[in-house]
Design goal:
There is one protein chain. This protein is an alpha/beta fold. It folds into two domains: 121 residues, 3-Layer(aba) Sandwich (Rossmann fold); 101 residues, Arc Repressor Mutant, subunit A. It has a five-stranded parallel beta sheet with strand order 2-1-3-4-5, with helices on both faces. The chain has a four-stranded antiparallel beta sheet with strand order 6-7-8-9, with helices on one face.
Length: 233
């Protein structure tokens, strides 16, 4: 896959120049927008592969931009914002953002997030949504048609909830899933009480797929926000 085209949505000139210079040095194609209206128009007409989005835009909140773009596009959106509270991250991720990078940030972290998103795009483009697909990630294999999973060739003995949770994370590999999104998908409700149950199931699942649950290789915790399945090379 060629380097993707990236839309930078940022009204701070210094930060926009920093991001633009970084992308240019890495060989990415890009164009820019300085407010929400321009971002939505560019997303619709130029159809970029990835959006880098500031939330504090002069004409509208970035979360509104995410919500509007999500009505027609599943383009990956990486938020870059000075807002560091968990509630801000959760709101953006629940609206449809794929990742959240807090200002100030290093260019190394930005390019790492872009590479991770690109790997996810490559995986999605090479995969099929058919239910008979087989998902592989490192030593982890999920046979959706057969309804079973294995690790390093050994079948995993999972409870129905553990298997459903594993499949949900796998189908969104590389993307942060919030607690409310997961509980809504697993239990059909975003009731806060289910978060405690989610932690219990997650701990049990990790014991079965992680060599060292205290240093997980497959499932990363985003404290106060949710979980992400890491793409294992």
């Amino acid at each position: 896959m060629n380097k993707p085209e990236i839309l930078i949505v940022e009204d701070d000139k210094a930060i926009k120049n920093l991001i633009s210079t970084t992308l240019e040095m890495e060989g990415y194609r890009y164009h820019t927008a300085e407010n929400g209206a321009q971002a939505i128009l560019s997303a619709a007409t130029q159809q970029p592969d990835i959006m880098l989005l500031d939330l504090g835009l002069p004409d509208m909140d970035g979360v509104q931009v995410i919500a509007k773009v999500r009505t027609w596009s599943q383009m990956p959106i990486i938020v870059i914002s000075a807002r560091s509270e968990d509630r801000d991250k959760i709101e953006a991720l629940d609206a449809g953002a794929d990742d959240y990078l807090t200002k100030p940030f290093s260019v190394e972290e930005l390019t790492a997030r872009l590479r991770a998103t690109l790997r996810r795009l490559q995986y999605l483009s090479a995969s099929t949504e058919a239910e008979n697909a087989i998902f592989t990630n490192g030593g982890l294999t999920i046979d959706f048609a057969a309804g079973c999973a294995s690790l390093d060739g050994n079948e995993l003995h999972l409870t129905p909830f553990e298997y459903k949770l594993l499949c949900l994370l796998a189908r969104h590999v590389g993307k942060v899933l919030t607690h409310s999104f997961i509980t809504k998908e697993i239990w059909g409700s975003s009731w806060e009480g289910d978060v405690a149950s989610l932690r219990v199931f997650m701990a049990s699942l990790r014991k079965k797929i992680e060599a060292d649950p205290s240093q997980p290789r497959y499932i990363q915790t985003h404290v106060g926000v949710g979980y992400r399945m890491i793409r294992v090379e």
